[in-house]
Amino acid sequence: MVKKAPRRTAERIQDVTLELFNRFGEPNVSTTLISAELGISPGNLYYHYPAKDELINSLFDRYERGLNELLNASDGVRNVEDAWFFMHTLFEMIWQYRFLYRDLNDLLSKNRRLETHFQWVIKNKTRAVRALLDGMSRAGVMTMDSREVEATATSMVVLLTYWLSFEYVRNPRHALEPANAQSALMRGAHHVLSLLAPYLEPGQRTHLQRLAAAYSSPASLPACA
């Protein structure tokens, strides 16, 4: 049996850093903790990433490449089923890099590169959502006045961008734990697509309700001690 080649140190550093950032939040993870988790010396870590911002930027680059590839798929959305799959896949990508969204405002205030590049992320998300709306309208599954497209697209992008922050605020101890991922993603997809409900033709609206009932579960908040 052919053995897999060992992962390069730089790739291992990225993977472990992403796991730690997602678990504890970027502000709470030091380079000392990262090197200890990897079992390497701080000097070895600094050799690959001389500053913590370089690690953050490398993870953001990975995220942005995957996101842009996914957003291009919005051109193929023609109905509620397509839109549900697209939104859930998009939320899965956001979840994979959830530290960016959990600590977004803090990161943007400290990192000039993220500040400028995240503006492109917002623009690309908005473009993709407009393409989704256009595709569904041309397919005849929804009717939306052209004057409502921009406001609806913006509202959908706001939900996409800040949904995990909302989940975290309402349940800080558990919302971003892996065990809660699926329910958080389904709720997010449901709420984003619910913005389209008034414009959907009746059969598609009913299908959206069925999808939400089949796959979403109500949020469960911990009981107060």
Give a written overview of the molecule.
With 225 residues, this protein is mostly helical. The protein has helices at 9-24, 31-38, 42-48, 52-71, 80-96, 98-102, 104-110, 112-138, 146-170, 181-194, 202-215. The longest helix has 27 residues, at 112-138. The protein is elongated and about 60 Å long. It starts with 8 loop residues before the first helix and ends in a 10-residue tail after the last helix.
Overall pLDDT metric: 89
Query: Tally the helices: what do you get?
Result: 11
Please give the number of β-strands. Answer: 0
Uncertain stretches of 5 or more adjacent residues: 1-6, 217-225
Q: What is the overall shape?
A: elongated
Radius of gyration: 20 Å
Strand count, sense and barrel status of the largest sheet are: none
Class computed from helices, strands and strand pairing: mainly alpha
Return the string of H and E elements. HHHHHHHHHHH
The percent of residues in helical segments reads over 70%
How far apart the termini lie comes to 54 Å
Strand content: under 5%
Which labels suit this protein?
225 residues, mainly alpha, elongated
